[in-house]
Amino acid sequence: MLYLDHNATAPMRPHAIDHVLGAAERGGNPSSLHGRGQAARRELDLAKDAVRDLVGAANARVLLTSGGTEADHLAVRGIARAARRDRGADVVLLSDLEHPAVREAAAVLTAEGFRPRTVRVGADGRVDLEVFPSAAELRKTALVAVMLANNETGILQPVAEIAAVAREAGVAVHVDAVQAAGKVAIDFDALGVDALALSAHKFGGPRGVGALVTRPDLPLEALWGGGGQEEGLRSGTPAVPLAAGMGAAAREALADLRSGHGQTLRDRLEAALLRLEGAFGVGTTSPRLPNTSALGFEGVGAIDLVAEADRRGLCLGAGAACHAGETRVSTVLAAMGLGAPRALEVVRLSVGWNTTEADVDAAIGILTDAVSALRAAA
Ligand code: PLP
Questions:
Q1: Which residues, including other chains, have CB under 8 Å from residue 9's CB and lie 6 or more apart?
Q2: Any residues with Cβ below 6 Å from ligand 1, and which?
Q3: Under a CB-based contact definition with an 8 Å cutoff, are residues 16 and 248 in contact?
Q4: Which atom of ligand 1 is closest in space to residue 98's alpha carbon?
Q5: 154-189 pLDDT per residue, tens
Q6: Counting atoms of ligand 1 from 1, which one is nearest the CA of 207?
């Protein structure tokens, strides 16, 4: 089976699997004072160092979470509640294309009386800085949340520019870097953000573990209480084996970033597919992740193409989601102004650490045949 859906989840790196198994066999609770507990503490600390290195955050606080969704919730809800407590700010500002994890966290806040506000993206899929509020207009804002790279298109957002305005207003910025981490170089300090979410399974670590990286003194309220682990901000015995796997994957992903491997393959794949009749790209001229390609083929529904490619041995993602038998335009594509029928034809191809040139060439063949077969059957 050919797998070009790394943005959904990447296959685990063998080295990460070894680390998970090793830590699971060794056992130990990092809160225990005995040797085994302290060895687990060191494993956890090493994993956090690898996370800091991956995102250029040498001095940051790293809180272990169950993945990107929890990291986003902890940041959005935890920062906004602390900001309302400390300075009475009650506006939560999101970009139009945030992942549901961030949107749902903001919805919880809205139910608590916070005022939601969204800032739109342009046709290029990037937050429109022309309409982004000025520092003076951000005065009542508790939090700004903007993703670093979009999961469907790979388009990179102008996070540093947004963070500069927010900093002037004294407003914290949370960046969802779940898709970006391990795919592009990230410099937390240079971005000037206050919090950053990542998830191990997007860069070859285990599913079910991630981290919230924050500046060390960021005011943050915990989502729940308990044993007081992770500086009292995320109670619960840390998943050391999963953290060890995440650390191993982070170290390898950082080394891979220097190779340019993903971009060469993505460009080869995209160039060949865009030569097919009626093919179109989404966001291909915007700054974007080097591994992601969002493409469509006129007259070929994305859901049908994903199913046909699957039958022929290729896994890829669809921009359109199917809910209860009804196909809906993705909110991300809609925010970019792409409506039906084109938006319902967009598929996502994402390469990763174990993708080869032979995989890409085989995928081009499969998709060429699948598109012709579906058009012939229409
Ligand atoms: N944020 C973005 C941009 C994502 O793409 C995803 C997962 O697809 C998440 C958050 C959620 O991450 P997780 O699956 O680790 O909960």
A1: 201, 202, 207
A2: 67-69, 72, 99, 101, 147, 151, 176, 178-179, 199, 210
A3: yes
A4: 3
A5: 999 999 999 999 999 999 999 999 999 999 999 999
A6: 15
Is the bond preceding 241 in cis, omega lying within 30 degrees of 0?
Answer: no
Residues labelled catalytic:
322
d(CA 164, CA 298): 41
284-321 pLDDT, tens per residue?
Answer: 999 999 999 999 999 999 999 999 999 999 999 986 55
Say how many CA atoms lie within 13 Å of 78 toward its Cβ: 26
Residues forming a β-bridge with 318? 347
Sign of CA dihedral 198, 254, 64, 172: negative
DSSP reduced 3-state for 169: helix
Pocket test for ligand 1, best of 178, 246, 291, 330 (most atoms within 8 A of CB): 178
Contact, 168 vs 209, CB < 8 A?
Answer: no
pTM of structure: 0.97
Amino acid (one-letter) located at 292: T
Amino acid at 76: V
Report whether 22 contacts 211 (CB < 8 A): no
Does residue 67 come out as left (phi exceeding 0), alpha (psi in the -120 to 50 range) or beta? left
**Residues of the chain where predicted confidence (pLDDT) is lower than 70:** 319-326
Structure tokens at 75: 């940041």
The torsion angles phi and psi of 321, rounded to 5 degrees, stand at: -110, 145
Helix (H) or strand (E) holding 371, with range, is helix 357-377
Mutate to test the pocket of ligand 1, among 12, 151, 174, 201 (most ligand atoms within 8 A of CB): 151
Beta carbons of 229 and 31 less than 8 angstroms apart: yes
Tracing tokens 């994890």 back to the chain, one arrives at: 101
Q: Ligand 1 centre and the CA of 151: distance in Å?
A: 8
Number of C-alpha atoms within 13 angstroms, CB side, residue 132? 22
Query: Which of 99, 183, 186 has most ligand 1 atoms within 8 Å of its beta carbon, as the pocket-test mutant?
Result: 99
Give the model's pLDDT for residue 320.
Answer: 57
Q: How many whole angstroms from 107 Cα to the centroid of ligand 1? A: 17
CA distance 166 to 143: 9
Helices (H), 88-239: 100-111, 159-169, 188-191
Peptide bond into 287 cis (omega under 30): no
